[in-house]
Amino acid sequence: MKDFFRVSHFSKKSKARIGEINTVHGKLKTPGFIAAATKGTIKTLTPKQVNEIGIEAACFNTYHLVTHPGADIIAKVGGIHKYSGLNIFAMSDSGGFQVFSLARNQRKADVRGEEQPLLVKISGDGVRFRSLHDGQLIEFTPEKSMEYQLKIGADINMAFDECTYYPATHEYAEDAMNRTHEWLKRCVQFRARQRNFLLSGNPPRLGGESQGVKNLLSSPSTNNGQLVTSDQFLYGIIQGATFEDLRKKSAEFVVAQNTPGIAIGGVSVGESKKEMRDQVKWMADYLPKDRPVHLLGVGQIDDIIDLVKYGVDTFDCVEPTRLARMGTLYKMSNNKLQMTNKSQILNDKDLKIDITRTEYKNNFEKLDVNCNCYVCTNFTKSYLHHLFKQREILGYTLATHHNLYFMEKLFDKIRELIIKDQI
Ligand SMILES: [Zn+2]
Q1: CB-based contact 411:55 (threshold 8 Å)
Q2: pLDDT at 205 (0 to 100)
Q3: How many CA within 13 A on the CB side of residue 179?
Q4: Which of 13, 31, 239, 383 has its Cα between 20 and 30 A from that of 396?
Q5: 374 CA to centre of ligand 1 in angstroms
Q6: Ligand 1 midpoint to CA 401 (Å)
Q7: pLDDT band for position 245 (50/70/90)?
C-alpha cells in the first residue's frame, strides 16, 4: 500500500511529529491512540458506538483470539474486521507478552491452585501449552505467531518477541533480546515467503507455513474473495529491558531490518515511570523518521506527552477502558489540558474521579462540564454513581464511552500543540 505512513509536520521543539498511518480499513492520525479490543471487542461498546465516539483504531490480542475462538474460525469469515464488525484500523500483538507471562506464572499458579492453561514446553523456539478451553495443544513460535496474525487479518502485525520481565539481570535481558532479534529475522523471512507465494503462486521453498496458511493463500474464496495478506504491515519489536546499552543495540538492529513500522516492547512491566521514560529516551535518536513508532502497552495520560516528544506515534493501553469498568472516569474540568504550552500539562491525579464514591449520590451536575460527549451531555454524576452501585451494565458502557472520548480529545490537543511547535 502506498503512503502507509506520511508525516506532515516535525516539531521544532522535540522529536514529536504529526502524521497519518493509512490502511485499507482506515487511517489513524498520529500521534494517536489504539483502543484495547483484546478478545475481539472494545469492551461494552458496539462497533456503531465506537464509530460515534470517533475511535480510529483497535488492538486485538493474538493469544486470546487463538485460544478462543481460534484463528481458523476468524479466517473463515475473512478476518477480524468482518468477524467483529469493527471495521477500523486494527493492530494485533504477537502473543509473546502473554505466552511468556504464562510460562513465568505457571509455577506461582500451581502453588496457588489456580486454573491456568497447562504449559507444555518452553524452548529457544517459543512456547507450547494446552488451552484451558478445550485442551488443544497451542504453539507460539515466530512462524506460528505470523500465521495466526495472518489469519486474524489485522492491518498491523507484531513480530514474535520475548517481553523481558522486571527486574531482569543484564545477562537474561541480553539473551532475551538476542532471541527476539533472531525471531524477528524469521518473521521477516516468513513474510517474504508468504508474499512471494501470494504473488507467484509458487509454494514456498522454505518450510514454516502450515498447510492451513497454504490453503488460505491459495484459496481466496475462503476469505470472501479477499486475501487478508497483501495489506498487512509488520512491525519489529525493540527489547532490552532497563539497560541502556541493550536498548540502543536492539533499536539499531530492529530499525535495520526495514520492517514497515517499529514497536517498542518490554516497557511498563513493573519498572518506575522514570525508568520507563528513560528507556524510550535512550532509543529516541535511533528511531526512524520515515516509519511509524508504536509503544506497546503504554498509555497512562501523564506518560503520553513525554513519550510523544521522543518520537512515539501510537500507543495502546487497556487503562481507559479498564478504569471505566471500575468507575474511574477521566475529567477535563480543571485540568491543565486547557493550557497551551506546558509539557507538564497533565498530572494524572488531577484527571480522574471515582464515581462510586458516596458523595456523588446527591450530585446532579454533569460528569464533566468541559466534555461534550454523549454521556456528559445527557447524564448526571448521581445517575452514573447509581448505575455503578447497582452494577447496571449501562454504567460500564457510559463510562467506557466517556473515557475513550476523552482519549480522542487528548490526542487532538496533543496534535494541535505539536503543529504549533509547543511540544
Ligand atoms: Zn464526557
Answers
A1: no
A2: 47
A3: 21
A4: 31
A5: 7
A6: 8
A7: very high
Distance 367 CA to ligand 1 centre (A): 7
| Position 52 confidence tier, pLDDT thresholds 50, 70, 90 | very high
Across the range 211-215, mean pLDDT stands at: 59
Residues 89 and 58: beta-carbon distance below 8 Å: yes
Which CATH number, 3.20.20.105, 3.40.250.10, 3.30.70.100, 1.20.120.1810, labels domain 5-94+146-323? 3.20.20.105
CB contact at 8 A, 32 and 56: yes
Q: Residue 316 catalytic?
A: yes
CA of 347 to the centre of ligand 1 (A): 19
DSSP H helices, 12-69, are: 47-53, 62-67
- Output the pLDDT for position 220: 42
Which amino acid would we find at residue 184? Answer: L
Rg (Cα) of the chain, in Å, rounded? 22
Whether the pTM exceeds 0.70: the reply is yes
CB 34 within 8 Å of CB 22 = no
Catalytic residue, chosen from 93, 125, 313, 368, is 93
Give all strands of the β-sheet with 5-10 in edge-to-edge order: 5-10, 17-23, 26-30
Three cell numbers written together for 80: 477480524
Identify which has the larger pLDDT, 302 or 265: 265
User: Among 125, 303, 316, 368, which one carries the catalytic annotation?
Assistant: 316
Cell 489485522 locates to 154
Domain boundaries, the chain: 5-94+146-323, 326-419
pLDDT at residue 124 in the model: 77
Ligand 1 center from residue 332 Cα (angstroms): 8
Kindly tell me if the per-residue pLDDT of 327 is higher than 90: yes
What is the reported pLDDT for 92? 98
Q: Give DSSP secondary structure letters for 254-317.
A: HHHTT-SEEEE-S-SSSS-HHHHHHHHHHHGGGS-SSS-EEETT---HHHHHHHHTTT--EEEE
- For 119, 270, 336, the CA distances from 291, given in Å and listed in that order, are 37, 28, 31
Question: What's the pLDDT score for residue 125?
Answer: 86
pLDDT at 157 over 50: yes
Could you tell me the distance, in angstroms and rounded to a whole number, from the CA of residue 275 to the centre of ligand 1?
32
If one counts every other C-beta atom within 10 angstroms of the C-beta of residue 271, the result is 17
Nine cell digits for residue 240:
532490552
Active site residue 368: no
Q: pLDDT, tens digit, for every residue of 81-136?
A: 999 999 999 999 999 888 877 777 765 655 555 556 666 677 778 888 888 788 88
In single-letter form, the type of residue at position 216 comes to L
